[in-house]
Amino acid sequence: MTMQEMFLTRARTDAEDAGHIFPEHAACEAALESAWGQSKLASLANNLFGQKQSHPAVGESIDLPTKEYAHGAWLTVPATWAKYSDWRTCFAARMAVLQRLGRAYPAYAAALAAKDGATFVTLVSKRWSTDPCRAAKVLGIWHAHKSLFSAPDLYA
């Protein structure tokens, strides 16, 4: 099993255990957002989605720079991120954020009501990231690894 397959298998299981909708797609989102679990944010804070710390702060935080896409260019800016004890907690927190912000952001509410994972990713990507190509990148990961998600041993 490759490093990418191990990451997706673990992330999918943790997403499902945390009650995240469309856990296979959530695992692919986490792969993109965390550089397959290799980003500094993922390794130091179990933060797989680039979830910034809420205000007022809830739990532990970590300060690290990030890249944001603005005015047609990528910029590096400082940010304060949420820190999680493990991946399952990260996935649960991600769902809580989407549910809480779904009241304010129609794209999140629509994503939570989606009937399939591709629609979920497309809708949530409208607000989750400044990367205009986020949804296509996540769905590219899903398409490249979709056979993994139908493997019987994944659900054992």
Overview of the structural elements:
This protein has one domain (3-150): Lysozyme, CATH 1.10.530.10. It contains seven helices and two strands, in the order H-H-H-E-E-H-H-H-H. The chain has helices at residues 3-17, 23-33, 40-45, 87-101, 106-112, 117-128, 134-149, and strands spanning 61-70, 73-82. Helix 1 packs across helix 2 and helix 1 (3-17) crosses helix 4. It is globular, with a radius of gyration of 15 Å.
Short description:
The protein has seven helices and two strands, in the order αααββαααα.
β-sheet strand percentage? 5-15%
Any idea what the radius of gyration is? 15 Å
Main sheet makeup: 2 strands, antiparallel
User: Class in CATH?
Assistant: Mainly Alpha
Q: Which CATH architecture would you pick?
A: Orthogonal Bundle
Q: What portion of residues is helical?
A: 40-55%
Low-confidence stretches: none
The SS-based structural class is: alpha+beta
SSE ordering: HHHEEHHHH
User: How many structural units, i.e. domains?
Assistant: 1
CATH fold group? Lysozyme
Shape: globular
Compute the number of helices.
7
Distance between the termini: 16 Å
Mean pLDDT: 91
Kindly report the spatial arrangement of strands forming the biggest sheet.
1-2
Number of strands: 2
